[in-house]
UniProtKB/TrEMBL annotation:
Any single Gene Ontology cellular-component annotation: extracellular space
Organism: Malus domestica (Apple)
Identification of the protein by name: Serpin domain-containing protein
GO molecular function: serine-type endopeptidase inhibitor activity
Family: Belongs to the serpin family.
Entry-linked PANTHER family: GH10112P-RELATED, SERINE PROTEASE INHIBITOR, SERPIN
Top-rank taxon: Eukaryota
Length: 148
């Protein structure tokens, strides 16, 4: 994996999303969003999909393969989970998770990718009969900056 190329592609996708959002939703109102969170969510979906769905996600994310995305995510996570910069600058914390409806089977390979590459929580929950504030979470990925 060429990290520089991955960063350039991720930046290109983020700028494309930003342009589209500013031309639509952001035209008449304030807008806050996290391009990295969107990239991670779509990468996780690509890791768990196949066929035309995966092909479309890879094309949108400008990536050669799901493995390439997973390697890029693992590299990002290792930087994000570090103890901050040597100069004592801000520390970035990144939390993400995947909640899947219990009846849906999960492949062990997907569980492994979520755990090792994305360092994400993975839980199967009963969305049909056990709907509570603890099982429904509208935010899949959250970015926060600490110690500013």
């Amino acid at each position: 994996m060429d990290l520089r190329e991955s960063i350039i592609n991720q930046t290109d996708v983020a700028l494309g999303l930003t342009k589209k959002l500013l031309q639509t939703e952001g035209k008449q109102s304030n807008l806050v969003y996290s391009p990295l969170s969107i990239h991670v969510v779509l990468s996780l979906i690509a890791a768990g999909s196949k066929g035309p769905t995966q092909d479309q996600l890879l094309s949108f994310l400008k990536s050669k393969s799901a493995d390439h995305l997973n390697s890029f995510a693992a590299e990002l996570v290792s930087v994000i989970f570090s103890d901050g910069s040597p100069s004592g600058g801000p520390q970035l914390a990144f939390a993400n998770g995947v909640w899947v409806d219990k009846p849906l089977p999960l492949k062990p390979s997907f569980k492994q990718v979520v755990d090792t590459s994305y360092k994400a929580a993975l839980a199967q929950v009963d969305f049909q009969t056990n709907v509570s504030s603890q099982t429904l979470c509208p935010v899949v990925s959250i970015i926060c900056i600490k110690d500013l």
